[in-house]
Amino acid sequence: MKRWLWHRHIGIAALTVVIAIMAGCSGHGGGSVTVKNPPIRESAGKVELERIDRLDDLYGLAWLSADEMIGTGKPKWMEAELTVHSLVKAKDPDRPLGIEHALTVNPSPDPYMLFVSNMMDASFVRIQDGLKTGIQVNDGAYSILNGNVRGAWIGNRGYLLATVYELIVAGLDGGITSIHKLKQDEVVVKAEAVLDPSNADKFTAYYLNQDGELYRLDASFDASNKPKASAEPILIRKKVADFSIAPGGGMLAIAEESGDNRNSVILQPMNDKGQATTIAEGSLARQIVWSPDGSRLAYALFNLERGGSGLYVMDAKTGHTTLVSLYPNLQSLLAWSPDGTRLMNPEMNLTATGAKLLTEIYTFK
After folding, report:
1. Which Pfam family is an annotated match for this chain, by its short name (predicted)?
2. Cα(310)–Cα(312) distance, rounded to whole angstroms?
3. Which residues pair with 99 in a beta bridge?
4. pLDDT digits (tens, 9 = 90+) for 222-281
5. Which DSSP letter does residue 2 get?
6. Nearest CA-CA partner of 363 in 99, 53, 71
7. What is the pTM of this model?
8. Domain tally, the chain
9. What's the domain range around 219?
10. 16 within a domain of the structure (yes/no)
11. Do 173 and 224 share a domain, yes or no?
12. 3-state DSSP assignment of residue 21
């Protein structure tokens, strides 16, 4: 129980540090943000922003479809019921989803199922009828869930999760299987997974720990759909602040601490056979996320001086980069719609009393 509470305090403390950085910036220290020349240049393939929709009093958590999003209208979203908001029928009232107390909502790729969690509990919820299946994340009386880590779907076969002791895969029946035990006092801060495009029984898990070490763990499902690691984790890179796996497993996008008060956004082939390419630099780089088809990469850059801060979207083929917002979101996860045409940017000022919620939706041509 003490270890779970310690991890919870770490997550809250980390969020407080980010908020303090944002609130206390006054132009002292740091360097300017630099968007690098892209690795490939073509005349076509520009990222063109069609429109921006501002949704007041709504905090978006996930996409249910290309036109519907899951969110909440209350600042204390972990205590509020989730609703579905339509972007094409904006005047229709939001409909209840039948889910409460959610910190993370992550739809399966089909989409058929929702993974839903808060700081202590996790479950699968079937979208069609709301049937809930609890995930066994406890060691008897207490939860061992690392509620600060979102985790990731492994295709539609299971869900990668972090506990305070290990990496696990949850089956859709709620049962869990350990695939890697963490080192003493090691804390996972982010975990993602990708299926092998040539073999649906194989997958690769990536996880980042509190020391900025990014590891790769190869694993596979057996005939009974039980996952098992194929070998020990491999250290990929150090001084990592954030990362994201491109769908299909071809490329890693990494935010690396490249110097004192400086981050670089790097593209690195996952097979380690190609050269890493730096695409942007700034004081802080976070919230890196690939679109579902891997054609676009979104990331946030923050500058302690002035200018250059904001949300950027890059065309993965041409390298063309577009600034879509002057305000970098370092607190909440960015989320792409299933068809990759829309990017959700939820915001909430946690330092203000009675803070109002806001979500911006960027629609691309």
Report:
1. PD40
2. 6
3. none
4. 999 999 999 999 999 999 999 999 998 789 999 999 888 889 999 998 876 668 899 999
5. H
6. 53
7. 0.84
8. 2
9. 104-146+151-238
10. no
11. yes
12. helix
